[in-house]
Amino acid sequence: MNNIVAIVGRPNVGKSTFFNRLIQRREAIVDSVSGVTRDRNYGKSEWNGKEFSVIDTGGYIKGSDDIFEGEIRKQVELAIDEADAIIFVVDVEDGITPMDEEVAKLLRKVTKPVLLAVNKVDNAMRQQDAIEFYNLGLGEYFTIAGMSGSGTGELLDKLVEVLPELPDAVEEENPLPRFCVVGRPNAGKSSFINALIGEDRFVVTDIAGTTRDAIDTKYNRFGFEFNLVDTAGIRRKAKVKEDLEFYSVMRSVRAIEHSDVCILVIDATRGFEGQDQNIFWLAEKNRKGIVILVNKWDLVEKDTMSTKRYEDAIRKEIEPFTDVPILFVSALTKQRLLKALETAVQVYENRKQRVATSKLNEIMLPIIEHMPPPAVKGKYIKIKFCMQLPTPAPQFVFFANLPQYIKDPYRRFVENKLRENFDFEGVPIDVYFRQK
Ligand code: GDP
Ligand code: GDP
């Protein structure tokens, strides 16, 4: 399980510059593969061999010039609730502002690690100016320049030192599927969970400090055994009904990272929107299985075409990863809930499957021979062998004489052929080409 680090602070102090620096290398790789840029406010970073997830909470309220203090406060409170550590960024050019003081006041009460980063310290002179930030009452601070990266090493050294040890996922001891139910506020997540497993299990117990860890609760319903990844977000969601992007993202991250399959609940009356897309992307990026439930289907006027049209519209939004089950359900009338559970179990199985090397080669090599990667500069590219790697989410490696010449469209072609020949519905898969 990864630690989650939240970057907070008022607009224009340099949060996203710093965030981009943290996730740089990895993001570049992801983007060149998918060619799609989605949520730019969540990513994974690594320092001294320790991996953690980073969220730039400010990214979600950007664009509003006259940002309300109340919004910053909510952003910080949410970060305090959901993150394992907080990096509070301030701007040495501006000095301490009233909003900084507000944020500091909230953070002083927090027992989680809080690191104060005084940004835009581009030169020695500004080192001197930074001293005033002691007055925020947060103790030692780190002077950084997000733009050049100077000072960030010391900050990150400290960060990974203070990050708490989290329990490792215990797949071995508990091999049941881990499902999480995600979606934006009011989509019907808790109604779905309640309908599925019974009301009594989701009594809200809001005991400070006990709610932040993801907990697997074992269920046995309709003959299926599974764990529901029950997070603070689900249990305490009653507190937050506001439909803000960063709420659904912050509250989904830990659950998603901790699960095998994400059940994304969307509200049929609202359609598939930006927030849904970003949560979908979080699951995809984490290489989790995905099932989309279009909930509140009881409220939608139906003619014979509407399911198909609705489904097509969603598939368009989730391109290029469209091989995902989409079900039309109602938590209220309990329509197709069993089917939803069945599908989630199937996606779990799909994600877990290991294709035997002999079978894989038997099927894929003739396809590749028939349609080889296009020759580059008169050089022929040959793929002679392939195998699935023993990873938690499916990864395939194809050995070639000149892997560097194989382009993304061909990779997608191979992925599609894999999907046609084996059942990977709902499962992101990786295809690599390597030197044999
Ligand atoms: P955010 O709103 O907090 O995410 O801030 P941004 O990352 O968008 O940065 C706001 C402005 O500060 C931009 O014009 C950045 O180029 C600038 N900035 C960010 N980091 C530094 C830095 O280390 N030094 C200087 N001089 N400017 C910076
Ligand atoms: P959450 O914030 O995602 O957990 O959403 P809730 O489960 O609290 O549901 C939000 C609202 O939608 C509540 O008023 C529910 O009664 C209603 N709701 C949930 N599922 C359905 C459904 O399938 N059909 C209808 N008509 N209403 C639903």
Explain how this protein is built:
With 436 residues, the chain is of the alpha/beta class. It contains 13 helices and 15 strands. The chain has helices spanning 15-34, 69-82, 98-108, 124-129, 152-162, 189-197, 232-235, 245-258, 274-285, 306-317, 337-352, 357-370, 408-421, and strands spanning 3-8, 42-47, 50-56, 85-91, 114-119, 141-143, 178-182, 215-221, 224-230, 261-267, 289-295, 326-328, 383-388, 395-400, 430-435. A six-stranded mixed β-sheet has the order 2-3-1-4-5-6, with helices on both faces. A six-stranded mixed β-sheet has the order 8-9-7-10-11-12, sandwiched between helices. It is globular and about 70 Å long. The structure holds guanosine-5'-diphosphate (2 copies).
Q: How many alpha or pi helices?
A: 13
Bound ligands, named by name, code or SMILES: guanosine-5'-diphosphate
- On the 0 to 100 scale, the average pLDDT is 85
The separation of the N and C termini measures 33 Å
List the secondary-structure elements in sequence, H or E.
Answer: EHEEHEHEHEHEHEEHHEHEHEHHEEHE
Largest sheet: 6 strands, mixed
- Helicity, in percent? 25-40%
Low-confidence stretches: 28-37, 201-213
Shape: globular
Strand order within the widest beta sheet: 2-3-1-4-5-6
**Number of DSSP E strands:** 15
> For the CA atoms, what is the radius of gyration?
23 Å
Query: What is the SS-derived class?
Result: alpha/beta
Binding site for GTP 1: 9-16, 56-60, 119-122
Keywords: GTP-binding, Hydrolase, Nucleotide-binding, Repeat, Ribosome biogenesis
Domain EngA-type G: 3-167, 177-352
GO molecular function: hydrolase activity
